[in-house]
Protein backbone atom coordinates (compact mmCIF):
# COMPACT_ATOMS: atom_id res chain seq x y z
CA UNK A 1 0.00 0.00 0.00
CA UNK A 2 1.24 3.43 -0.97
CA UNK A 3 2.00 5.44 2.16
CA UNK A 4 0.73 8.94 2.87
CA UNK A 5 3.34 11.41 1.69
CA UNK A 6 5.54 8.64 0.25
CA UNK A 7 5.65 10.40 -3.14
CA UNK A 8 6.28 14.10 -3.73
CA UNK A 9 6.05 16.67 -6.49
CA UNK A 10 9.52 18.16 -6.92
CA UNK A 11 9.02 19.96 -10.21
CA UNK A 12 6.03 22.02 -11.32
CA UNK A 13 5.96 24.64 -14.03
CA UNK A 14 3.69 26.11 -16.67
CA UNK A 15 4.72 27.10 -20.16
CA UNK A 16 6.64 30.37 -20.22
CA UNK A 17 3.57 32.08 -21.67
CA UNK A 18 -0.08 31.14 -21.36
CA UNK A 19 -3.15 32.75 -22.92
CA UNK A 20 -2.56 33.48 -26.58
CA UNK A 21 0.70 31.86 -27.66
CA UNK A 22 0.80 31.91 -31.47
CA UNK A 23 4.54 31.23 -31.50
CA UNK A 24 4.32 27.65 -30.23
CA UNK A 25 2.76 24.49 -31.57
CA UNK A 26 1.01 22.07 -29.26
CA UNK A 27 3.99 19.73 -28.84
CA UNK A 28 6.28 22.67 -28.06
CA UNK A 29 3.90 23.84 -25.33
CA UNK A 30 4.41 20.39 -23.72
CA UNK A 31 8.17 20.72 -24.13
CA UNK A 32 8.39 24.34 -22.95
CA UNK A 33 6.64 23.48 -19.69
CA UNK A 34 8.71 20.29 -19.29
CA UNK A 35 11.97 22.23 -19.77
CA UNK A 36 10.84 24.79 -17.18
CA UNK A 37 10.02 22.03 -14.68
CA UNK A 38 13.33 20.23 -15.32
CA UNK A 39 15.23 23.52 -14.96
CA UNK A 40 13.89 24.18 -11.47
CA UNK A 41 14.79 20.67 -10.35
CA UNK A 42 18.18 20.54 -12.06
CA UNK A 43 17.15 17.37 -13.92
CA UNK A 44 17.99 16.55 -17.51
CA UNK A 45 15.85 14.47 -19.87
CA UNK A 46 18.19 11.51 -19.30
CA UNK A 47 17.31 11.64 -15.58
CA UNK A 48 13.62 11.06 -16.30
CA UNK A 49 12.52 7.40 -16.50
CA UNK A 50 8.74 7.76 -16.58
CA UNK A 51 6.49 9.80 -18.91
CA UNK A 52 2.77 10.51 -18.80
CA UNK A 53 0.67 12.67 -21.08
CA UNK A 54 -2.82 12.58 -22.52
CA UNK A 55 -3.94 10.41 -25.32
CA UNK A 56 -3.20 7.67 -27.78
CA UNK A 57 0.33 7.68 -29.26
CA UNK A 58 1.29 10.73 -27.21
CA UNK A 59 3.79 9.32 -24.68
CA UNK A 60 6.09 8.24 -27.51
CA UNK A 61 5.83 11.63 -29.21
CA UNK A 62 6.71 13.49 -26.01
CA UNK A 63 9.45 11.05 -24.95
CA UNK A 64 11.11 11.24 -28.35
CA UNK A 65 10.74 15.03 -28.65
CA UNK A 66 12.35 15.57 -25.24
CA UNK A 67 14.97 12.81 -25.55
CA UNK A 68 13.66 10.57 -22.78
CA UNK A 69 13.94 6.75 -22.67
CA UNK A 70 11.18 5.81 -20.24
CA UNK A 71 10.78 2.56 -18.34
CA UNK A 72 7.17 3.45 -17.60
CA UNK A 73 4.57 5.37 -19.62
CA UNK A 74 0.96 6.36 -19.17
CA UNK A 75 -1.25 7.76 -21.92
CA UNK A 76 -4.46 7.86 -19.92
CA UNK A 77 -6.79 10.27 -21.69
CA UNK A 78 -10.09 10.83 -19.94
CA UNK A 79 -10.34 14.56 -20.59
CA UNK A 80 -9.16 17.53 -18.57
CA UNK A 81 -8.60 15.63 -15.31
CA UNK A 82 -6.27 13.09 -16.96
CA UNK A 83 -3.32 14.70 -15.13
CA UNK A 84 -4.81 13.88 -11.74
CA UNK A 85 -4.98 10.27 -12.89
CA UNK A 86 -1.39 10.50 -14.18
CA UNK A 87 -0.27 11.73 -10.75
CA UNK A 88 -2.09 8.83 -9.11
CA UNK A 89 -0.73 6.23 -11.52
CA UNK A 90 2.80 7.68 -11.34
CA UNK A 91 2.77 7.56 -7.54
CA UNK A 92 1.80 3.89 -7.70
CA UNK A 93 4.46 3.17 -10.32
CA UNK A 94 7.22 4.82 -8.27
CA UNK A 95 6.02 2.92 -5.20
CA UNK A 96 6.12 -0.33 -7.21
CA UNK A 97 9.65 0.37 -8.37
CA UNK A 98 8.78 0.62 -12.08
CA UNK A 99 10.49 3.99 -12.32
CA UNK A 100 12.02 6.67 -10.09
CA UNK A 101 11.36 10.05 -11.67
CA UNK A 102 8.18 10.74 -13.64
CA UNK A 103 7.49 13.68 -15.94
CA UNK A 104 3.82 14.52 -16.63
CA UNK A 105 3.22 17.03 -19.43
CA UNK A 106 0.39 18.96 -20.96
CA UNK A 107 0.36 21.28 -23.94
CA UNK A 108 -2.63 22.52 -25.87
CA UNK A 109 -2.93 25.11 -28.57
CA UNK A 110 -6.60 25.52 -27.71
CA UNK A 111 -6.83 29.09 -28.98
CA UNK A 112 -4.27 29.34 -31.78
CA UNK A 113 -4.89 25.72 -32.94
CA UNK A 114 -1.29 25.11 -34.10
CA UNK A 115 -0.88 21.33 -34.50
CA UNK A 116 -4.07 20.88 -32.47
CA UNK A 117 -5.99 17.64 -32.82
CA UNK A 118 -9.75 18.06 -33.26
CA UNK A 119 -11.63 14.80 -32.92
CA UNK A 120 -15.37 15.07 -33.53
CA UNK A 121 -17.20 11.93 -32.42
CA UNK A 122 -17.41 9.26 -35.10
CA UNK A 123 -20.97 8.89 -36.45
CA UNK A 124 -20.85 5.21 -35.39
CA UNK A 125 -19.89 5.97 -31.79
CA UNK A 126 -22.61 6.09 -29.17
CA UNK A 127 -22.12 9.86 -28.90
CA UNK A 128 -22.30 10.10 -32.68
CA UNK A 129 -25.55 8.16 -32.80
CA UNK A 130 -27.38 9.34 -29.70
CA UNK A 131 -26.18 12.89 -29.00
CA UNK A 132 -24.60 14.56 -32.02
CA UNK A 133 -27.75 14.48 -34.24
CA UNK A 134 -29.49 16.84 -31.82
CA UNK A 135 -27.15 19.76 -32.36
CA UNK A 136 -24.56 19.89 -29.59
CA UNK A 137 -21.56 21.98 -30.59
CA UNK A 138 -18.75 21.47 -28.12
CA UNK A 139 -18.67 21.65 -24.34
CA UNK A 140 -20.77 24.85 -23.92
CA UNK A 141 -23.78 22.98 -25.33
CA UNK A 142 -23.17 19.70 -23.46
CA UNK A 143 -21.66 20.42 -20.07
CA UNK A 144 -24.58 22.65 -18.95
CA UNK A 145 -27.23 20.08 -19.95
CA UNK A 146 -27.85 18.97 -16.32
CA UNK A 147 -27.89 22.51 -14.90
CA UNK A 148 -31.62 23.32 -15.18
CA UNK A 149 -32.44 20.06 -13.41
CA UNK A 150 -29.87 20.87 -10.70
CA UNK A 151 -31.35 24.36 -10.28
CA UNK A 152 -34.87 23.01 -9.97
CA UNK A 153 -34.02 20.20 -7.53
CA UNK A 154 -31.64 22.28 -5.40
CA UNK A 155 -33.42 25.65 -5.53
CA UNK A 156 -30.38 27.32 -7.13
CA UNK A 157 -30.85 30.62 -9.00
CA UNK A 158 -29.21 32.27 -11.98
CA UNK A 159 -27.73 34.78 -9.51
CA UNK A 160 -26.13 31.91 -7.55
CA UNK A 161 -24.42 30.58 -10.67
CA UNK A 162 -23.31 34.07 -11.67
CA UNK A 163 -21.79 34.51 -8.19
CA UNK A 164 -19.36 31.65 -8.88
CA UNK A 165 -17.91 33.64 -11.79
CA UNK A 166 -17.82 36.86 -9.76
CA UNK A 167 -15.88 35.28 -6.87
CA UNK A 168 -13.37 33.66 -9.18
CA UNK A 169 -12.76 36.95 -10.93
CA UNK A 170 -11.92 38.37 -7.53
CA UNK A 171 -9.14 35.79 -7.21
CA UNK A 172 -8.00 36.40 -10.79
CA UNK A 173 -7.60 40.09 -9.98
CA UNK A 174 -4.69 39.12 -7.73
CA UNK A 175 -2.96 37.08 -10.42
CA UNK A 176 -0.85 38.85 -13.08
CA UNK A 177 -0.97 35.76 -15.35
CA UNK A 178 -4.76 35.53 -15.35
CA UNK A 179 -6.35 36.33 -18.70
CA UNK A 180 -9.30 38.28 -17.24
CA UNK A 181 -8.58 40.39 -14.15
CA UNK A 182 -11.11 43.26 -14.05
CA UNK A 183 -13.76 42.88 -11.33
CA UNK A 184 -17.26 41.85 -12.46
CA UNK A 185 -20.67 41.91 -10.78
CA UNK A 186 -23.59 39.48 -10.84
CA UNK A 187 -25.34 41.97 -13.15
CA UNK A 188 -22.37 41.94 -15.53
CA UNK A 189 -22.58 38.15 -15.71
CA UNK A 190 -26.35 38.09 -16.22
CA UNK A 191 -26.10 40.75 -18.94
CA UNK A 192 -23.26 39.06 -20.80
CA UNK A 193 -23.87 37.34 -24.12
CA UNK A 194 -26.08 34.23 -24.00
CA UNK A 195 -24.21 31.13 -25.18
CA UNK A 196 -26.39 28.18 -24.20
CA UNK A 197 -29.19 29.00 -21.77
CA UNK A 198 -28.86 28.98 -18.80
CA UNK A 199 -25.22 29.93 -19.34
CA UNK A 200 -23.84 33.23 -20.58
CA UNK A 201 -20.30 33.82 -21.76
CA UNK A 202 -18.98 34.86 -18.33
CA UNK A 203 -20.13 31.50 -16.94
CA UNK A 204 -18.12 29.58 -19.57
CA UNK A 205 -14.40 28.85 -19.41
CA UNK A 206 -11.80 30.62 -21.47
CA UNK A 207 -10.20 29.09 -24.54
CA UNK A 208 -6.44 29.58 -24.39
CA UNK A 209 -3.03 28.19 -25.30
CA UNK A 210 -0.66 26.86 -22.67
CA UNK A 211 1.17 23.97 -21.11
CA UNK A 212 2.21 22.58 -17.77
CA UNK A 213 4.49 19.91 -16.40
CA UNK A 214 5.00 18.07 -13.13
CA UNK A 215 7.93 15.96 -11.91
CA UNK A 216 7.33 13.31 -9.24
CA UNK A 217 9.72 11.20 -7.23
CA UNK A 218 9.85 9.43 -3.89
CA UNK A 219 9.70 11.65 -0.81
CA UNK A 220 13.03 10.19 0.32
CA UNK A 221 14.72 11.53 -2.83
CA UNK A 222 12.74 14.79 -2.76
CA UNK A 223 15.01 16.38 -0.17
CA UNK A 224 17.89 16.28 -2.67
CA UNK A 225 16.09 18.77 -4.93
CA UNK A 226 16.31 22.56 -4.66
CA UNK A 227 12.51 22.93 -4.69
CA UNK A 228 10.21 22.63 -1.69
CA UNK A 229 8.61 19.17 -1.89
CA UNK A 230 4.83 18.92 -2.08
CA UNK A 231 3.69 15.58 -0.71
CA UNK A 232 0.86 13.47 -2.07
CA UNK A 233 -1.36 12.41 0.81
CA UNK A 234 -4.17 10.73 -1.08
CA UNK A 235 -5.55 10.18 -4.57
CA UNK A 236 -8.76 9.04 -6.23
CA UNK A 237 -10.17 8.46 -9.70
CA UNK A 238 -13.31 7.29 -11.45
CA UNK A 239 -15.32 7.52 -14.67
CA UNK A 240 -19.05 7.40 -15.31
CA UNK A 241 -20.18 7.84 -18.94
CA UNK A 242 -18.97 9.65 -22.02
CA UNK A 243 -22.55 10.81 -22.72
CA UNK A 244 -23.80 13.58 -20.46
CA UNK A 245 -27.37 12.59 -21.35
CA UNK A 246 -26.74 9.25 -19.67
CA UNK A 247 -25.28 10.43 -16.36
CA UNK A 248 -27.33 8.73 -13.70
CA UNK A 249 -28.05 11.71 -11.47
CA UNK A 250 -28.18 15.20 -13.03
CA UNK A 251 -27.66 16.82 -9.62
CA UNK A 252 -24.52 14.91 -8.64
CA UNK A 253 -21.59 13.28 -10.42
CA UNK A 254 -20.90 9.61 -9.76
CA UNK A 255 -17.27 10.08 -10.83
CA UNK A 256 -16.91 12.94 -8.32
CA UNK A 257 -18.51 10.91 -5.53
CA UNK A 258 -15.99 8.11 -6.05
CA UNK A 259 -12.78 10.03 -6.78
CA UNK A 260 -13.13 12.77 -4.16
CA UNK A 261 -13.93 10.75 -1.05
CA UNK A 262 -11.43 8.03 -2.09
CA UNK A 263 -8.66 10.64 -2.09
CA UNK A 264 -9.76 12.27 1.16
CA UNK A 265 -10.03 8.93 2.95
CA UNK A 266 -6.64 7.81 1.65
CA UNK A 267 -5.17 11.08 2.93
CA UNK A 268 -6.63 10.35 6.35
CA UNK A 269 -7.70 13.96 6.82
CA UNK A 270 -10.77 15.65 8.12
CA UNK A 271 -12.45 18.01 5.65
CA UNK A 272 -12.14 20.81 8.19
CA UNK A 273 -8.33 20.49 7.89
CA UNK A 274 -8.38 21.54 4.23
CA UNK A 275 -6.86 25.02 3.79
CA UNK A 276 -7.13 25.36 0.04
CA UNK A 277 -9.17 23.81 -2.72
CA UNK A 278 -9.23 23.65 -6.50
CA UNK A 279 -12.35 22.42 -8.31
CA UNK A 280 -11.99 22.30 -12.08
CA UNK A 281 -14.43 24.97 -13.27
CA UNK A 282 -15.05 24.45 -16.95
CA UNK A 283 -18.42 26.12 -16.31
CA UNK A 284 -19.96 27.91 -13.34
CA UNK A 285 -21.85 24.90 -12.01
CA UNK A 286 -18.79 22.71 -11.48
CA UNK A 287 -17.70 24.19 -8.12
CA UNK A 288 -21.23 23.63 -6.78
CA UNK A 289 -21.23 19.96 -7.78
CA UNK A 290 -17.67 19.56 -6.49
CA UNK A 291 -18.31 21.08 -3.06
CA UNK A 292 -21.37 18.87 -2.57
CA UNK A 293 -20.08 15.63 -4.09
CA UNK A 294 -16.78 15.81 -2.15
CA UNK A 295 -18.69 16.34 1.08
CA UNK A 296 -17.64 19.93 1.82
CA UNK A 297 -21.29 21.03 1.61
CA UNK A 298 -24.54 19.13 2.00
CA UNK A 299 -26.60 18.70 -1.19
CA UNK A 300 -28.17 22.06 -1.99
CA UNK A 301 -25.89 24.08 0.28
CA UNK A 302 -22.96 24.84 -2.03
CA UNK A 303 -24.58 27.89 -3.65
CA UNK A 304 -25.20 29.46 -0.24
CA UNK A 305 -21.67 28.53 0.88
CA UNK A 306 -20.22 30.50 -2.05
CA UNK A 307 -22.76 33.34 -1.74
CA UNK A 308 -21.77 33.80 1.92
CA UNK A 309 -18.15 34.40 0.93
CA UNK A 310 -16.55 31.19 2.21
CA UNK A 311 -14.58 30.62 -1.00
CA UNK A 312 -13.53 34.28 -1.50
CA UNK A 313 -10.19 35.80 -0.53
CA UNK A 314 -10.23 35.72 3.27
CA UNK A 315 -12.94 33.04 3.37
CA UNK A 316 -12.56 29.78 5.28
CA UNK A 317 -12.18 27.61 2.16
CA UNK A 318 -10.27 29.55 -0.52
CA UNK A 319 -11.32 28.00 -3.84
CA UNK A 320 -9.85 28.31 -7.33
CA UNK A 321 -7.32 30.86 -6.18
CA UNK A 322 -5.69 31.32 -9.59
CA UNK A 323 -9.00 32.59 -11.03
CA UNK A 324 -9.91 29.17 -12.41
CA UNK A 325 -10.87 28.09 -15.88
CA UNK A 326 -13.36 30.95 -15.94
CA UNK A 327 -10.75 33.72 -15.53
CA UNK A 328 -7.17 32.34 -15.37
CA UNK A 329 -6.71 30.05 -18.33
CA UNK A 330 -8.36 27.04 -19.99
CA UNK A 331 -6.52 25.34 -22.80
CA UNK A 332 -9.10 22.61 -23.21
CA UNK A 333 -7.63 20.43 -20.47
CA UNK A 334 -7.39 22.68 -17.43
CA UNK A 335 -6.63 19.98 -14.84
CA UNK A 336 -2.89 20.57 -15.21
CA UNK A 337 -3.34 24.23 -14.25
CA UNK A 338 -5.44 23.35 -11.19
CA UNK A 339 -2.60 21.04 -10.07
CA UNK A 340 -0.03 23.79 -10.69
CA UNK A 341 -1.97 26.18 -8.45
CA UNK A 342 -2.24 23.59 -5.67
CA UNK A 343 1.52 23.05 -5.83
CA UNK A 344 2.18 26.82 -5.77
CA UNK A 345 -0.09 27.20 -2.74
CA UNK A 346 1.74 24.37 -0.95
CA UNK A 347 5.12 25.86 -1.87
CA UNK A 348 3.96 29.25 -0.64
CA UNK A 349 4.60 30.88 -4.02
CA UNK A 350 1.06 31.55 -5.36
CA UNK A 351 0.27 35.11 -6.49
CA UNK A 352 -2.79 35.01 -4.22
CA UNK A 353 -1.13 32.97 -1.49
CA UNK A 354 -3.35 31.56 1.27
CA UNK A 355 -1.33 32.34 4.41
CA UNK A 356 -0.11 29.24 6.22
CA UNK A 357 -1.93 26.76 3.95
CA UNK A 358 -0.84 23.18 4.70
CA UNK A 359 -3.39 20.98 2.92
CA UNK A 360 -4.77 21.45 -0.58
CA UNK A 361 -7.43 19.37 -2.33
CA UNK A 362 -7.28 19.44 -6.14
CA UNK A 363 -10.33 18.03 -7.90
CA UNK A 364 -10.64 17.56 -11.64
CA UNK A 365 -13.35 16.72 -14.13
CA UNK A 366 -12.92 15.11 -17.55
CA UNK A 367 -15.35 15.30 -20.45
CA UNK A 368 -18.84 16.35 -19.44
CA UNK A 369 -18.93 14.85 -15.94
CA UNK A 370 -17.55 11.73 -17.58
CA UNK A 371 -14.38 11.30 -15.51
CA UNK A 372 -12.78 12.58 -12.36
CA UNK A 373 -9.51 12.63 -10.46
CA UNK A 374 -8.68 14.08 -7.04
CA UNK A 375 -5.33 14.67 -5.33
CA UNK A 376 -4.77 15.75 -1.72
CA UNK A 377 -1.46 17.59 -1.26
CA UNK A 378 0.45 18.79 1.77
CA UNK A 379 3.69 20.66 2.36
CA UNK A 380 4.27 18.55 5.47
CA UNK A 381 5.14 14.87 5.35
CA UNK A 382 2.91 12.94 7.76
CA UNK B 1 -38.04 16.09 -43.31
CA UNK B 2 -35.34 17.82 -41.29
CA UNK B 3 -33.17 20.58 -42.71
CA UNK B 4 -29.87 19.18 -44.04
CA UNK B 5 -26.62 19.64 -42.14
CA UNK B 6 -27.13 17.73 -38.90
CA UNK B 7 -24.65 15.07 -37.83
CA UNK B 8 -26.08 11.80 -39.11
CA UNK B 9 -25.92 8.72 -36.92
CA UNK B 10 -24.43 5.57 -38.42
CA UNK B 11 -26.03 2.45 -36.94
CA UNK B 12 -23.85 -0.44 -35.77
CA UNK B 13 -24.84 -4.13 -35.47
CA UNK B 14 -25.77 -3.47 -31.83
CA UNK B 15 -27.99 -0.45 -32.53
CA UNK B 16 -29.51 -1.28 -35.94
CA UNK B 17 -32.80 -2.49 -34.46
CA UNK B 18 -33.29 0.86 -32.72
CA UNK B 19 -32.82 2.87 -35.93
CA UNK B 20 -34.92 0.40 -37.96
CA UNK B 21 -37.64 0.85 -35.34
CA UNK B 22 -37.51 4.64 -35.63
CA UNK B 23 -37.98 4.33 -39.39
CA UNK B 24 -41.14 2.27 -38.73
CA UNK B 25 -42.43 4.72 -36.13
CA UNK B 26 -41.54 2.52 -33.15
CA UNK B 27 -39.39 3.53 -30.21
CA UNK B 28 -37.63 0.28 -29.31
CA UNK B 29 -36.03 -0.17 -25.91
CA UNK B 30 -34.40 -3.16 -24.26
CA UNK B 31 -35.14 -4.94 -21.00
CA UNK B 32 -32.79 -6.93 -18.77
CA UNK B 33 -33.92 -10.57 -18.48
CA UNK B 34 -32.62 -10.82 -14.91
CA UNK B 35 -34.02 -7.67 -13.35
CA UNK B 36 -36.74 -6.54 -15.74
CA UNK B 37 -35.13 -3.12 -15.78
CA UNK B 38 -35.11 -1.08 -18.99
CA UNK B 39 -31.93 0.46 -20.41
CA UNK B 40 -30.58 2.75 -23.13
CA UNK B 41 -28.52 3.17 -25.32
CA UNK B 42 -28.97 -0.20 -27.05
CA UNK B 43 -26.57 -3.09 -26.43
CA UNK B 44 -27.08 -6.86 -26.61
CA UNK B 45 -26.55 -7.40 -22.87
CA UNK B 46 -27.74 -5.91 -19.63
CA UNK B 47 -25.70 -3.14 -17.99
CA UNK B 48 -27.31 -4.17 -14.69
CA UNK B 49 -26.18 -7.81 -14.50
CA UNK B 50 -24.18 -8.54 -17.65
CA UNK B 51 -26.69 -11.13 -18.88
CA UNK B 52 -27.12 -11.54 -22.62
CA UNK B 53 -30.71 -12.52 -21.89
CA UNK B 54 -32.38 -9.30 -22.97
CA UNK B 55 -35.50 -8.47 -24.94
CA UNK B 56 -36.54 -5.67 -27.25
CA UNK B 57 -39.95 -4.04 -26.79
CA UNK B 58 -41.84 -1.03 -28.06
CA UNK B 59 -41.94 1.91 -25.65
CA UNK B 60 -45.01 4.07 -25.17
CA UNK B 61 -43.31 7.16 -26.60
CA UNK B 62 -44.43 9.16 -23.58
CA UNK B 63 -41.79 11.17 -21.74
CA UNK B 64 -41.23 14.25 -19.61
CA UNK B 65 -38.78 17.07 -20.18
CA UNK B 66 -35.85 16.36 -17.88
CA UNK B 67 -33.30 19.10 -18.67
CA UNK B 68 -32.02 21.16 -21.59
CA UNK B 69 -29.93 24.03 -22.88
CA UNK B 70 -31.00 26.57 -25.49
CA UNK B 71 -28.11 27.11 -27.87
CA UNK B 72 -27.79 30.62 -29.28
CA UNK B 73 -25.06 30.11 -31.86
CA UNK B 74 -25.37 28.74 -35.40
CA UNK B 75 -24.77 25.05 -36.06
CA UNK B 76 -25.25 23.36 -39.46
CA UNK B 77 -28.84 22.08 -39.74
CA UNK B 78 -30.18 24.23 -36.89
CA UNK B 79 -31.61 27.74 -36.60
CA UNK B 80 -30.68 29.34 -33.26
CA UNK B 81 -31.97 29.58 -30.66
CA UNK B 82 -32.73 25.86 -30.42
CA UNK B 83 -33.02 23.56 -27.44
CA UNK B 84 -30.88 20.46 -26.95
CA UNK B 85 -32.95 18.45 -24.51
CA UNK B 86 -32.82 15.33 -22.42
CA UNK B 87 -36.16 13.60 -21.90
CA UNK B 88 -37.00 10.89 -19.41
CA UNK B 89 -39.08 8.14 -20.99
CA UNK B 90 -42.04 6.70 -19.12
CA UNK B 91 -40.11 3.41 -19.00
CA UNK B 92 -37.17 5.06 -17.18
CA UNK B 93 -34.25 5.66 -19.56
CA UNK B 94 -33.31 9.16 -20.66
CA UNK B 95 -32.25 10.23 -24.10
CA UNK B 96 -31.01 13.36 -25.83
CA UNK B 97 -33.37 14.86 -28.41
CA UNK B 98 -34.91 18.08 -29.70
CA UNK B 99 -38.35 19.42 -28.77
CA UNK B 100 -40.52 20.31 -31.77
CA UNK B 101 -43.88 22.12 -32.13
CA UNK B 102 -42.86 24.31 -29.20
CA UNK B 103 -41.30 27.74 -28.76
CA UNK B 104 -37.62 27.36 -27.94
CA UNK B 105 -37.79 29.57 -24.82
CA UNK B 106 -37.38 28.94 -21.08
CA UNK B 107 -41.02 29.99 -20.64
CA UNK B 108 -42.37 27.42 -23.10
CA UNK B 109 -39.94 24.67 -22.13
CA UNK B 110 -40.93 23.84 -18.57
CA UNK B 111 -39.12 21.01 -16.82
CA UNK B 112 -41.30 17.93 -16.31
CA UNK B 113 -43.80 18.93 -19.01
CA UNK B 114 -45.32 15.84 -20.67
CA UNK B 115 -43.99 15.00 -24.13
CA UNK B 116 -44.62 12.43 -26.83
CA UNK B 117 -42.30 11.06 -29.47
CA UNK B 118 -42.43 12.68 -32.91
CA UNK B 119 -40.54 10.57 -35.44
CA UNK B 120 -38.92 12.87 -37.97
CA UNK B 121 -37.00 11.62 -41.01
CA UNK B 122 -33.52 13.00 -41.75
CA UNK B 123 -33.44 11.16 -45.08
CA UNK B 124 -34.39 7.72 -46.42
CA UNK B 125 -31.99 5.95 -44.05
CA UNK B 126 -32.39 7.68 -40.72
CA UNK B 127 -35.42 8.85 -38.76
CA UNK B 128 -34.80 10.67 -35.47
CA UNK B 129 -36.98 10.28 -32.37
CA UNK B 130 -37.75 13.94 -31.62
CA UNK B 131 -40.34 14.91 -29.01
CA UNK B 132 -43.24 17.40 -28.86
CA UNK B 133 -45.57 18.58 -26.09
CA UNK B 134 -48.07 15.80 -25.34
CA UNK B 135 -51.56 16.24 -26.80
CA UNK B 136 -53.24 16.74 -23.44
CA UNK B 137 -50.74 19.52 -22.65
CA UNK B 138 -51.16 21.40 -25.91
TrEMBL record, chain A:
InterPro entries reported for this sequence: Thiolase, Thiolase-like, Thiolase_C_2
Gene3D superfamilies with a match to the protein in the record: 3.40.47.10
Domain Thiolase C-terminal, first and last residues per copy: 236-379
Domain of life, source organism: Bacteria
Pfam families, per the entry: Thiolase_C_1
MF (Gene Ontology): acetyl-CoA C-acyltransferase activity
The protein's name in its UniProt record: Thiolase
Lineage: Bacteria, Pseudomonadati, Pseudomonadota, Alphaproteobacteria, Acetobacterales
UniProtKB/TrEMBL annotation, chain B:
Domain ChsH2 rubredoxin-like zinc ribbon: 19-45
InterPro entries registered for this protein in UniProt: ChsH2_C, ChsH2_Znr, NA-bd_OB-fold, Thioester_dehydratase-like
Keyword Flavoprotein on entry: no
Protein name as it appears in the record: DNA-binding protein
Gene3D superfamilies recorded: 6.10.30.10
Keyword DNA-binding: yes
Residue span(s) of domain ChsH2 C-terminal OB-fold: 58-119
Keywords, comma-separated and alphabetical: DNA-binding
GO molecular function terms noted in the UniProt entry: DNA binding
Amino acid sequence: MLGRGEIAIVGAAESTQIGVVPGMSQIMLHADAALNAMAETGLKPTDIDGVACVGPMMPQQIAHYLGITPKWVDGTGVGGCSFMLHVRHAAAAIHAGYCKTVLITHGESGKSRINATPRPPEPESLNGQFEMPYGPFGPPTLFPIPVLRYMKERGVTHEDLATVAVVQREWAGKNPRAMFRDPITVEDVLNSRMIAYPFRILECCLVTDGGGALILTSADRAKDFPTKPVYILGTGESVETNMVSQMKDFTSSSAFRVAGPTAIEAAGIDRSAVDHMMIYDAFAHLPLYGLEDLGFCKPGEAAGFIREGNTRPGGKLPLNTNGGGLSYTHTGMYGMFALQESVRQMRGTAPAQVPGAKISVCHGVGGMFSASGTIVFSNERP
Amino acid sequence: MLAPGRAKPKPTPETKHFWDGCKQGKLLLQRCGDTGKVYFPPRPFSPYTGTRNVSVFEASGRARLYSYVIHHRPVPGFTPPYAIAVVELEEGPRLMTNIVDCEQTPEALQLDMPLEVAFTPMDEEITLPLFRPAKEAR
